[in-house]
Design a protein that fits this description.
This protein has 502 residues and is an all-alpha fold. Among the domains are: 15-31 and 46-271, no CATH class; 297-381, Alpha Horseshoe (Serine Threonine Protein Phosphatase 5, Tetratricopeptide repeat), CATH 1.25.40.10. The chain has 25 helices and three strands.
């Protein structure tokens, strides 16, 4: 077994302390090095003196630990796979030099918002995904956020305010995170106001400049990736028109990304510089958006009612998929099964139809049929993440965790799993009787969420499992030694005090 032997380890278990440390280091470097007006080669941005790209990645990773711990991440593999597919398609155009490893995720929040974190982490609220009318509009938002990262706006923002105190800058970044993830404009705006003081207008102007630059770079990426470059201006216009004059009801996206008529006009004008593009929404866009809509309904009955508003014969395939998914949620399994059979027969290239059909067969306890559906789909779509996740879950339900463990191990040795997916393989290993490997996976899960002490304790438990083979022992001990090198004195002491626990 070789899963995750070389995984990166977050260098501190205390995300807040790391963020402040990075800010302190960056600001100290910036104070004594004003830029000289000399015609020099382009060897980097002044932002590098404040926050290097490595530090951006570490800070972004630390913030992501907090977001994961909040429990607000959408863990639906079909939604996550889709948003990363579109995001990486855009990032490939904006990130030509490969300086950033982008990661896209969805936050379970009905507020219309999206945000960029240091190091290439891009978050989208479910409310924004639902609010988009087509794939080009969603791509426009993602392209804008990708541009914030590639143009290093967070580091440049710190650089622009280097005369502010370290505390003020830390408060500002904390406020941005709180407002972005939680959709709380009051928390964000209040904290920023305290942090900025008399420099508020200067900061606002700098933010506006960032927004225009992100629009310009983002529209270029949209066009290069094959999307309609009008998608960005179109979404800005739609949410601007639909917003209430009352600030309390204004979409969060308009507060964090102020949109004026002049900005909309400029975005529209820039898009006209590119050749017209006639696009059609992919089926995966419709499916991801539909899954969000089904999930946000308060009751299964409400989900069914939403998709029964139109007669079945007049509905598109995506709407019928939504109806079948709502039926599954309401345990109207026979009705769901009939629709999924029709969809899968009509278009066998859509992975979601195969997954839906197998899930419906499982719900009706048609076990042999469900396994056959999953196996046929695996032949068509080998190592597809959502498919393997759904199949592995089904295998554990029918008492075959050994095969589930093997499938997940094969997948995660080829693609990077999310923390929740690591927990899933740990469960499969436990049920398969692979106790040492289960504890190893749980150790990796704890490392991924920033708990270095807890991770090592799981590895110590793994070392105490009876009949441990020598290769496993060497691997677990090497992992402990590797992680200990990144632990603080406080963490090492905590680990020493907890020796023997578990």
């Amino acid at each position: 077994m070789n899963y995750d032997r070389n995984s990166n380890v977050v260098r501190s278990g205390n995300a807040k302390r790391l963020a402040v440390l990075l800010l302190c280091t960056g600001l100290t470097l910036a104070v004594g090095s004003p830029a000289a007006e000399v015609n020099l080669p382009d060897i980097g941005s002044p932002a590098d003196a404040v926050l290097s790209k490595n530090d951006e990645a570490r800070l972004g990773s630390a913030i992501m630990q907090q977001i994961r711990a909040s429990g607000d991440l959408v863990e639906d593999p079909q939604i996550t796979e889709y948003i990363n597919e579109v995001g990486h398609r855009l990032a490939a155009q904006a990130n030509a030099d490969g300086n950033y490893e982008f990661s896209f995720f969805v936050v379970d929040n009905p507020v219309i918002n999206a945000f960029a974190l240091p190091g290439g982490y891009i978050g989208v609220h479910t409310g924004l995904l639902e609010a988009t009318r087509n794939e080009d509009e969603l791509a426009g938002v993602l392209a804008h956020e990708v541009a914030h990262v590639t143009q290093r706006h967070i580091a440049r923002r710190i650089h622009s305010g280097q005369r502010q105190s370290i505390l003020s800058t830390a408060i500002m970044l904390g406020a941005i995170l709180a407002g972005a993830v939680g959709g709380s404009s009051e928390v964000m705006q209040g904290a920023i106001a305290v942090a900025q003081g008399s420099a508020a207008q200067q900061q606002i102007n700098f933010t506006r400049a960032n927004e225009y630059e992100a629009d310009r770079v983002g529209i270029s990426s949209l066009a290069a990736a094959g999307f309609d470059p009008q998608g960005m201006g179109s979404f800005f216009e739609v949410i601007s028109r639909g917003s209430s004059p009352s600030e309390a009801r204004m979409p969060e996206f308009l507060r964090t990304h102020p949109v004026s008529s002049a900005r909309i006009a400029e975005a529209r004008g820039r898009a006209r510089n590119y050749a017209p593009v006639h696009t059609a929404d992919t089926i995966t866009y419709g499916i991801a958006r539909t899954r969000v809509i089904v999930d946000r309904q308060k009751t299964p009955e409400a989900a069914v009612s939403y998709f029964e508003r139109e007669p079945y014969e007049f509905q598109s395939d995506v709407q019928r998929y939504g109806r079948a998914t709502a039926y599954l949620r309401a345990e109207r399994n026979d009705e769901a099964l009939r629709i999924f059979e029709e969809l899968a027969s009509k278009d066998s290239k859509v992975i979601a139809y195969h997954i839906g059909l197998a899930d419906a067969q499982m719900a009706m306890e048609l076990i042999a049929e469900a396994v056959s559906t999953f196996e046929r789909a695996r032949e068509l779509f080998p190592r597809n993440i959502p498919l393997v996740i759904h199949y592995a879950d089904a295998l554990m339900k029918i008492g075959n965790p050994v095969k589930a463990h093997a499938m997940l191990l094969d997948l995660f040795n080829n693609v990077t799993p999310t923390p929740e997916q690591v927990r899933m393989i740990a469960r499969a290993a436990t049920e398969a009787g692979e106790d040492a490997e289960a504890r190893y996976y749980m150790a990796e899960y704890r490392f991924m969420i920033g708990d270095l002490v807890g991770g090592i304790q799981f590895l110590q438990q793994a070392l105490r499992v009876p009949d441990l083979d020598e290769i496993q022992r060497i691997r677990f001990e090497a992992r402990i030694d590797f992680v200990r090198d990144f632990m603080s004195e406080e963490q090492l002491q905590q680990l020493q005090r907890g020796r023997g626990i578990g």
